[in-house]
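# step 3/5: fold
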Amino acid sequence: MHPRSIPAGPFEGTPATSLRGFVLAVCLGAAALLVSGCSTVRPWINAPLGAEGRQPVAITRTAVHADTLQSSHPIIGAVTLSGGGARAAAFGLGVLQELKATGFERQGRPTTLLDEVTLVSGVSGGSVLATYYAAFGDEVFTRFEREFLLVKFQSGLVSQILAPSGLHRLTSPWWGRSDMLALRLDDLFRGVTFGELRARRPSLRLLVTATDLTTGAPFEFTPEQFALICSDLDSVPLSFAVAASSAVPVLLSPMTVRNYAGTCPSTQPAADAGMAGDNLSARLLQRIAASYQDARERPYLHLVDGGLADNLGVRGLVDRAVASGSLDESFRALPQGSVHHIVLVSVNSERDLGDRIDRTDRVPGMGQVLNALLFGAGSRFIQETTAMVDDQARQLREKLHAARGRPGSPFAADAELHVINVSLRGVRDGALRDKVVRVPTAFEILPVHVHELQAAGRLALRDSPEFQRLRSSLGSWAATETASSKCDRTATDC
């Protein structure tokens, strides 16, 4: 049963714009379940390959797919958007605005950095924005605010959960709170599936990442990942993937995927061939792929917030580039000498802890403990991931310099790798930074915070030294003025 075929509950309800409020609402809902009747309703489940005549896709671990390429592709661009609820979505939207406002000429025609992006990746809150942009393109600048950022999204979700129809569904052992989130998100994404997305925007790849609850490994909603479990990604609603990526443990329930491995031609040899390098990244990816091969042992995969595996959503991209054993291998589908710039924009929306429990001897409450565990301890992993990515980027840059200009290499003689890290804590405007790093992690934030975060995103990218180096090398020209470029550097009302 497709999520969009299930009628949604009422959207009116009590606001719950903080973690503590959401916890309270969930507790009330759980109490109500104890006195309500049991339901046997089942949510949507992924289909096997072979259903409706579908065949497995070829496993390709290359960074760029041949069907997305043109004869010359001077820029290979990727944007990764971290978790952080609506805060991450608003901050990331500001970054997208600045990328759209950064124009240059490609083969004599005007274009923008955003228009040259071939992959957009998102985790948790960042996956909401990444998926919306992938599905609807520049509509993100005119509709995303009013359809997600400025609506009472979290309050509406709580209302759906506490409505009689919602409470009845939740008595089913197969229906969880994240299935209610998928219903809400299906309205936002207009029922679009991955297959429909691929048909409408073939030149842009979307990467949404969740976490396998059993193994703790990242689970990516990609054709390659679904081929490993002999399942059909094309029929998966975008809303399902984003709900899985946003399923914060305890507050939301895991989303379940069926593993059909063994019911289609084996994909393991092809997967191994795409990770042929003799390095830690290759061995790690091979081990993750192998964990899905025995469907009798693991017939169901339970997925939770992608931030538990990698809150930046960038680690998998770099791991695959390193695992291939050769940078040329990652871009082998491209013509010789066609690549001049590889650009990765990593957006980190990590915030400061709202409550500093280490400044008092009082026993922390449940909300404070959850806040520290989910959003505080993760800071260390973000720092580790950032350091690891920086180190791997240095290695990749060395490989690029060694490969560029060689016969048969896709890299031009002047090819460069640009890794641009953008973070809330990197905003130079001290007053603005102090405001945005304290915005809570929730699906619903204040309108003033929405505008401040967008301004912070534009400023953080614009002030990045690596971004300025990229602009200089592209010979940026003044693009047609967009909504973002009209905004003053410190404006919060644009």
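# step 4/5: annotate
DSSP finds 20 helices and eleven strands in the chain.
# step 5/5: archive (pending)
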